[in-house]
């Protein structure tokens, strides 16, 4: 008796759950790419700032960390763009 009431409860819960709407899957591409652009600016800006400050702290004349962090940030951004645009 207990198992039949459990299965009835599960069926009721499933009926109450909303199916995923299509609008969530088809987000506005403008918003999607605007968010991606903001993420790119923030990541690259943070990488350049961190490299600049680390170079200042080390006292080196040549901006080693600025270059390394910038290139690392660009690599991460490229990976993120590829990952985000492959998803649909």
Description:
With 88 residues, this protein is mainly alpha-helical. Helices cover 82% and strands 0% of the residues. Helix 3 (29-58) packs antiparallel against helix 4. The protein has four helices and no strands. The chain has helices at residues 2-16, 22-25, 29-58, 64-86.
SSE arrangement:
Blueprint: H1 2-16, H2 22-25, H3 29-58, H4 64-86
Helix pairs in contact: 3-4
| Helix content estimate | over 70%
Mean pLDDT over all positions? 80
β-strand percent reads: under 5%
Main pleated sheet? none
Taken in chain order, the helices and strands follow as HHHH
Shape: elongated
Low-confidence stretches: none
Topology, number of strands: 0
Radius of gyration: 24 Å
Could you write a compact summary of the structure shown?
The protein has 88 residues and is mainly alpha-helical. The protein contains four helices and no strands. The chain is 82% helix and 0% strand.
Features:
elongated, 4 helices, mainly alpha, 88 residues
């Amino acid at each position: 008796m207990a198992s039949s009431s459990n299965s009835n409860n599960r069926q009721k819960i499933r009926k109450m759950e909303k199916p995923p709407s299509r609008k969530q899957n088809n987000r506005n591409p403008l918003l999607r790419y605007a968010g991606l652009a903001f993420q790119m600016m923030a990541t690259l800006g943070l990488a350049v700032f961190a490299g600049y400050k680390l170079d200042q702290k080390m006292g080196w004349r040549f901006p080693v960390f600025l270059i390394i962090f910038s290139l690392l940030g660009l690599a991460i951004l490229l990976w993120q763009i590829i990952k985000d645009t492959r998803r649909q």
